[in-house]
Amino acid sequence: MAAIEDRDSAWYGIKPVPRMIQNQLGHLLELNMIELDRKILKGVQALMEKRERRMWLGFWIHPSKPSALIDEAVVSCNSLLSHFHCMIGRKPLDLNWDDQKSGDMVDNDPNVVKSMKALQAYVLRLSK
Questions:
Q1: What is the pLDDT of residues 68-88, one digit of tens each?
Q2: 116 close to 97: Cβ distance less than 8 angstroms
Q3: Do 117 and 99 contact (CB within 8 A), yes or no?
Q4: Less CB within 10 Å around the terminal CB: N or C of the chain?
Q5: In terms of pTM, does the model score above 0.70?
Q6: How far apart are CA 15 and CA 1, in angstroms?
């Protein structure tokens, strides 16, 4: 694959990973998430079946500091944004989502429109 030549792209000059590899990595991530979800639910169910309220306290106290959790969330958002760029491209981020034509593309789903506006605002903050 050739390097990205669009100077407006966040990946200008970078050689993208082939789509098949992206799909395979995404699928492996999904499989790992399914397995982790299964393990977590199994553990939670076992705790709930014990009916010991003191065991539930562990669900509300997180060992990490709030600032560390926020940093992790930012990294996750950036990762999702990168995947969005790779899979869909930048065009949806350049659209005016208040415009009827843009809304029509997503069946005027207010949640999608709101999410796209939030994503645009986030990208704008990152580019400053």
A1: 878 888 888 777 777 766 666
A2: yes
A3: no
A4: C
A5: no
A6: 6
